[in-house]
Amino acid sequence: MRILIGLLFAAGMADGQVVLRGADFAHYVSEFNRAFPEDLVNAIPDVQAWAWMQRNVPLFTCPDPDIERTWYYRWWTFRKHIKQTPDGFVVTEFLRPVRHAGPHNTISCALGHHLAEGRWLRDRRYLDEDLDFWLRKGEQGGMQRHYHQYSGWTTWAAYERWLADGDTKRLVSLLDVLRKDYEQWESERLLPSGLFWQYDVRDGMEESASGSRKNKNARPTINSYMFGNAKAIAAIARLAGQAELARVYDDKANRLRNLVQQSLWNREAQFFEARLDTGQLAGVREEIGFTPWLFELPERGRGFEVAWKQLMDPRGFLAPYGPTTAEQRHPAYAIREEGDNCQWNGPSWPFSTSITLTALANVLNDYPQRAISVADYFKTFLTYTRSQTLRRPDGSVVPFIDENLHPQTGEWWARALAMKKGKFQARGDHYNHSTYNDLIITGVVGLRPRADQVVDVNPLLPTGQWDWFCLDNVPYHGRTLTIVWDKTGRRFGAGKGLRILADGREIARSPKLRRTTARLDRDSFQGMSRADEQ
Fold this sequence. Notes:
Layout: H1 2-9, H2 26-35, H3 49-56, E1 59-61, H4 65-80, E2 82-85, E3 88-91, H5 111-118, H6 125-135, H7 141-147, H8 154-165, H9 168-172, H10 175-189, H11 220-239, H12 243-263, E4 265-266, E5 271-272, H13 350-366, H14 374-387, E6 389-391, E7 397-399, H15 413-420, H16 437-444, E8 454-457, E9 468-476, E10 479-486, E11 497-502, E12 505-510, E13 516-519, E14 528-529, H17 530-533
Antiparallel strand pairs: 1-9, 2-3, 4-5, 6-7, 8-13, 9-10, 10-11, 11-12, 13-14
Helix pairs in contact: 5-8, 8-11, 10-11, 11-12, 13-14
């Protein structure tokens, strides 16, 4: 069988495409180029978009046309935000200049998302230079203030990138600057309690249900981020052979974990909440209460996962066009036409939906629990997918991503408010403030990046949902992976079941769609599903 697959797919190996043909998906880019006349050009113009995508991005196909189309749209938009500057490549959040941006129209708020999505690109220069811009130049005077304008999980995201690309030398070279950055956050935001504080607007979440532009509240966001950053520094220190530094940051992470569980968990509400500077919990569930699981902060076996019941509760966060940012049963929940266009007291934000879905994938993979299911994950992902469209005045519908959504109607809300106020500037067009393709790779298809040479695939698909899919040309640990599911064997003509290939060679197979692992050893076939191991 391994020889047969090699013969079947060898023709595609020259460009890394083993099963799928790039030419079959070029029509998407032609569609996007026609739908959105180019008025701003960064490093890769629209005319070069498909050629760039063929060189850089994995290919994906599945039975759901909306998901497949959105996959290629999101790579098309990510490419638009890659900007070449005198300081190297940077990745922007807005295409158009905004007042609160720094040099080269950069904003640090969604940097963690940029690193998660961009880690699957073949050309690593884009993220290498973007990280250098923020971290190395970030040590310099005004740039540090610009970088710390928003809280974030950059160190964690850099480590997670390493789990995919395996470039240890590059990651270890950042250790000293990452440690200094953590210490700087401690000097700026650490409370006497040992928790971190942040204004909601400096979390990028202005007008939230619990927050304030002036009050120093201990929020689940920054405290989860700093836990993840400390965990990552400890892991990088171990890679660098610095055992004492690893111990120091393990201790920081453990202290922060205990403080979050003790001080931010509302036992009555069974949810992580902000603790206000008055000493009281906020008394409102917000979507940021799911953020701790992005970093697997909550300890297993203590029942914290009960919080996830709120995601699928229509009185909680469940809405037709994405999770709301505040629970709908609470008086603070609102969809307002007055005030700031960017409100986090109700509207659905792709920024937060991305975090919630990534966190939920961690729960489903790594936590024994009964509060939420794979079916719930996929339903939330489908809602997120269907929300990424724009209905034009002529009635046509095009793929689209902007700032935030009215969770009941699907209208891009900040965009609509700007129009109503006569201040529309299309600033959120193709907004780069979230992830999507990383969710498909690590969640739906289920490639779980790891530090060792084991390939771990656990598709988060409900039983019977899809009869086939293929993710092809995925750079991983210096190899090229292909993950194919073909229930009948007729779709791709290479046999039935789930198959994992590395550089065109089959390394694992399973007759069923279930968690399957394999080693990346070049000369061995050791793949088996976890069910087979039992």
